[in-house]
Amino acid sequence: MSKQPAGRPRKESDRQVRDALLTAAIALFSEQGFDKVGIRHIAAKAGVSFGLIRHYFGTKDALIAATTELVLTELKKAYTEILDDIDVSDGQAYIDQLLERAITLLSPNLDLLFYLSRLASLDTDDAHNAFRTYFQIIRQDIDRLEAAGKLRVDANKVWLTFQIIFAQLGPVFLAGPIEAIIGRPAHDPDVLVARNRELASVFKFGFLAKEG
């Protein structure tokens, strides 16, 4: 029987602990914000000793930088999958498919959007740079429509991109009032379908070039 290379179990264990800390940090930062969460809370949620956060990340700021990088990586991955193989030759069908896939792929990962909403409250260079990256991820939607000749020629691509961001993060910021008014959570599947149906109408009217 061949022996496992020396050190491999430790490396796998290191990765598992680090991943557990990142997952716990994203969940807590998303729920409570950055100021209210201490590194001891994160260690407790991850089920590891407090000293391991110092070992793997050093400081809370370094941990926030690592969680932000992971959130953006996961969003890039989700958007790559959302945009994959969607036919942009029909602008209206493109928007319908885009919103439908966004529900399917982002709904199980709402922590990512809640994390971004918390990040938006930070007036720091790191937070601003992270949002620039998020902006570029979302900008792909607009660029694909433009490349296919489906975007209004007078469209302001910067503000159209922000409109998509507002549509994504608005229900996160307004989750409490939305539930109080309509009596259902903002991210209930049926609520998402109804919201996206209206968004599709707004986007088609506001974004797309007139056919013919």
Number of strand segments: 0
Alpha plus pi helix count: 10
Q: Which geometry do the CA atoms define? A: elongated
What's the SSE pattern? HHHHHHHHHH
CATH topology of the largest domain: Tetracycline Repressor, domain 2
Radius of gyration from CA coordinates: 20 Å
Mean pLDDT: 86
The tally of domains stands at 2
Word description of this protein:
With 212 residues, the protein is mostly helical. It folds into 2 domains: 50 residues, Arc Repressor Mutant, subunit A (Orthogonal Bundle); 143 residues, Orthogonal Bundle (Tetracycline Repressor, domain 2). 74% of the residues lie in helices and 0% in strands. It is built from 10 helices and no strands. Helix 5 runs antiparallel to helix 10. The longest helix is centred in the N-terminal third of the chain and has 25 residues. The chain is elongated. The N terminus is likely disordered.
Which features would summarize this protein structure in a list?
Arc Repressor Mutant, subunit A; disordered N terminus; 2 domains; 212 residues; mainly alpha; Tetracycline Repressor, domain 2; 10 helices
Describe the SSE topology.
Blueprint (H helix, E strand, L loop, with lengths): L7 H25 L6 H8 L4 H6 L3 H24 L7 H16 L3 H10 L5 H23 L9 H17 L1 H8 L6 H19 L5
Summary of the model, kept short:
With 212 residues, the chain is mainly α. It has helices spanning 8-32, 39-46, 51-56, 60-83, 91-106, 110-119, 125-147, 157-173, 175-182, 189-207. The protein folds into 2 domains: 9-58, Arc Repressor Mutant, subunit A; 65-207, Tetracycline Repressor, domain 2 (Orthogonal Bundle).
